[in-house]
Amino acid sequence: MAEVTTLIHKYLRHDKKFPHVWCPGCGNGILLGSLIRAIGRTNFEKDEIVVVSGIGCSGRISVYVDFNTLHTTHGRALTFATGIKLANPNLHVIVIMGDGDATAIGGNHFIHAARRNLNLTAIVVNNNIYGMTGGQYSPTTPYGSYATTALYGNIEHAFSIAELAVMAGAGMVARGTVYHAALLDELIEKALYKRGFSVVEVISHCHTQFGRRNKMGGAVEMLRRQKESAVHVEKAASMSPEELKDKFTIGVLVDRDMPIYTQEYRKVREAARTALSKTR
């Protein structure tokens, strides 16, 4: 308990911004706890950390943490974060986005940040819907589910954020849930230490906009669904497609070492300076 209290007072703007705006039972509070616990395990100084967020429920996290923070426009969190990292590569830049923020309006930014292998940590909160802006369907809303913009059922097929990041070239990709909080701590810590573009997809179903509209129960029932549907990648490797039907994997999906964009960019700058000096 003493350790938790220390983290709260060290890393949260507890005397300025609380109580928070999230619905009772929302997984964003669990994610916030995982984030500060993971940071607490690192040797990063507070002034070395920048937390960038976009618009949406998860975007409020940047308001509550006591680091250098930037609350940006919808879908553009990664572009702001890219500029910060290029301007000062020594900073530890963490980007927090929702599924709609990262993969709908921000989809191209997400793909190309992964392709470039920028040295950033992206945490994408997947709640299967646009929670704060009215319950519209998002790129991760399951086929047939209901939303304010899908009154007769969603006719678009969802894609997997984690698998998209893998195929786009991210250095590290992991998936966790807000039910498996201890594992989520570990995944975020690993992502923070990773050199290159690291992505942690966090399954955190919105019981207010998604669960209620689709008659899936409240926060407790939706957490129970995460427990029942999640399979660790190591166990999944020995399971058949039939056994994995209606399941999703959690854990580290990929961890690979590739050239880092900021380092490659520095080489280009040095080459340009050398070439310029020879023309004088």
Written description of the protein model:
The protein contains 12 helices and 8 strands. The chain has an 8-stranded mixed β-sheet with strand order 2-1-3-4-6-5-8-7, with helices on both faces. Helix content is 41%, strand content 16%. The N and C termini lie far apart (64 Å). α6 packs across α7 (161-168). The mean pLDDT is 94. The protein is an alpha/beta fold. The chain is globular and about 70 Å long. It has helices at residues 2-11, 28-41, 61-64, 77-87, 99-103, 107-116, 161-168, 181-193, 207-211, 219-229, 233-236, 261-279; strands at residues 49-53, 68-71, 92-98, 121-126, 172-177, 198-203, 230-232, 248-255. The chain has one domain (2-279): Rossmann fold (3-Layer(aba) Sandwich).
Q: Which architecture per CATH?
A: 3-Layer(aba) Sandwich
Helix fraction by DSSP (H/I, runs of at least 4): 40-55%
Overall geometry comes to globular
Q: Provide the CATH topology.
A: Rossmann fold
Defining traits:
thiamine pyrophosphate binding; Rossmann fold; globular; 2-oxoacid:Fd_oxidoreductase; alpha/beta; 41% helix; single chain; 280 residues
Question: What layout of secondary structure does this protein have?
Answer:
Elements: H1 2-11, H2 28-41, E1 49-53, H3 61-64, E2 68-71, H4 77-87, E3 92-98, H5 99-103, H6 107-116, E4 121-126, H7 161-168, E5 172-177, H8 181-193, E6 198-203, H9 207-211, H10 219-229, E7 230-232, H11 233-236, E8 248-255, H12 261-279
Parallel strand pairs: 1-2, 1-3, 3-4, 4-6, 5-6, 7-8
Antiparallel strand pairs: 5-8
Helix pairs in contact: 2-8, 6-7
